[in-house]
Amino acid sequence: MIAAELRAIEREILARRPEHSIDPSLDRIRHLTMLLGDPQRAYPVIHITGTNGKTSTARMTETLLRARGLRTGLFTSPHLISIRERICLDGAPVSAERFVELYREIEPYLRLVDDASPVPLSFFEVLVGMAFAAFADAPVDVAVIEVGMGGTWDNTNVADGTVAVITPISMDHAQYLGDTVAKIAADKAGIIKPGAVAVIGQQSVEAAAELLRRAADVGATVAREGIEFGVIARELAVGGQRVALRGLRGEYHDLFLPLFGSYQAGNAACALAAVEAFAGPGEDDATGLDPDLVAQAFAMVTSPGRLEIVRRSPVVVVDSAHNPGGMAAMAEALRESFGPVEVIVVLAVSADKDVAAILDELEPLAAAVVATANSSPRSMPAADLAELSRPVFGADRVHLAARLDDAVDIAVGLADEAAAMIGGELAGLPGAQADSAVGAGALVLVTGSVVTAGDARLLLTGVGPAGPADLAESAGPASNLADQPEREEQG
Questions:
Q1: Cβ(157)–Cβ(49) under 8 Å?
Q2: Other C-beta atoms within 10 Å of 160: how many?
Q3: Dihedrals φ, ψ of 36, to 5°?
């Protein structure tokens, strides 16, 4: 019964203007939150923007806050499998029952706003309103809010963050945010509010200038990665990495982070600084947060769909990189964390992305590419992606599969062949040389989009981020990926 009602509500929400149809105005969301009693003002907010790393940073921030005994709300987008992933309380997606209740509670107000506006509320605006209401009703001690796209005109920006976190900024969504990094940064800087603390991750000179200008204009305090806080040291570890971080109020050593890549260490540093800034002087130990709590929190961090191993023999990794900057960071992390390996890439991308630049970032990494499509209506047709890929990789390295499940099967076969060939070559090497090549092998990487990562995760594991119940209530059968709630890359 509840599953059917949830699916009906999802269809109602999805019938609205989609996330990627941008109308730069906060009038509708302000009208909605006003009718709801401005729930976004019932709790302090840590607001997070950037081009890449937002969701991972948000998850780490929320986990640190929860480890300190605070009741937390977390709003992220897009979702991998279940729409309920976007609205979390105390680290878990709201239940199907609560999601239905939230929608029914605000439904009359949605109609009022729709009737009063020439442009009805969008899919994203409805979810923002539901999240704000859920966090006020809980009630939470603090909400960690990830923007959907940009900053200034993002619907989440009706909330005033006491801490604003800006992860690295690069080119993405140029048609909406501006055709230079500086313009994009100026838009994202809009989440920095008067009197807030601006936690700024590693940035280009152009982006940093815009962020610092905004902070100066509104009187915000600035904390910069690499200056006021940052990564002291990091080394590979089984299942992730060990890091030492310098926060705003102390140093934290020998932290296990179960995520791959130097960029995740940077995200962890930003999350730590954000929580220290939120805690403020006078709380916890005078030299910083409780080191044991920090270590405990980072050790239990998860970031589904970010260099996540979903199968072994051969290893299959899914990653949600969907723009050139994210693809470059992912490729570097993959090389570092998995060693010398033949990488067979299953690629499905959104047609409105800088596909040429994405392919250029993948070319040095991929031994072969299987071009395919994902379940989003925005997905580039597999044949078009293959045609674009052939001049970059060479025709012999490009394969075509119209369906993602077929693409994964092809890639697994290619990986098995590559592993067998490598194994045969190693067998003929002298002992010392063979020992030095132990890391050699083959893996399958499924990437190109959050939608692609979510589709592959569902296909290969049958489990949503909150466990099998996600599937029964929201995702639908793995064989019917096209019926899942729409997911869009934001930035």
A1: no
A2: 16
A3: -85, 0
Could you tell me which of 198, 182, 162, 212 has the C-alpha nearest to residue 40? Answer: 162
* C-alpha–C-alpha distance, residues 287 and 246, integer Å: 11
The dihedral of CA 257, 263, 266, 272: what is its sign?
negative
Q: Looking up tokens 């109020």, which residue turns up?
A: 249
The amino acid at residue 437 is A
Q: Counting every residue, how long is the chain? A: 491
348/467: higher pLDDT: 348
Nearest-Å Rg of the Cα atoms of the chain is: 22
Provide the pairing of β-strand 398-400 with 366-371: parallel
Instruction: Tell me the torsion sign for CA atoms 231, 237, 240, 242.
Output: negative
Q: For tokens 């949503």, what's the residue? A: 464
Closest of 56, 51, 53, 47 to residue 304, by C-alpha: 56
> Chain-wide mean pLDDT for the chain?
89
Listed in order, strand segments (DSSP E) in 319-431 are: 342-347, 366-371, 398-400
* β-sheet with 163-166: strand ranges across: 92-93, 87-89, 72-75, 142-146, 45-49, 163-166, 197-200, 221-224
Contact between residue 9 and residue 3 where contact means Cβ atoms under 8 Å apart = no
Average pLDDT over residues 362-387: 96
pLDDT at 179: 76
Closest CA to 414 of 397, 394, 393, 402: 397
Residue 325 — very low, low, confident or very high, per pLDDT cuts 50/70/90?
confident
Q: How many CB atoms lie within 10 A of CB 171?
A: 18
**Are 159 and 133 a contacting pair, CB within 8 Å?**
no
- pLDDT tens digits for range 231-266: 999 999 999 999 999 999 999 999 999 999 999 999
Please state the rounded mean pLDDT for residues 285-289: 66
**Beta-carbon neighbour count of residue 176 at 10 Å?**
15
Q: Are the C-beta atoms of 361 and 329 separated by less than 8 Å?
A: no
CA dist 361 and 171 (Å) reads 14
Domains belonging to the chain, first-starting first, are 2-299 (3.40.1190.10), 308-463 (3.90.190.20)
Q: Which amino acid is at 299?
A: A
Instruction: Specify whether the CB–CB gap between 267 and 243 falls below 8 A.
Output: no
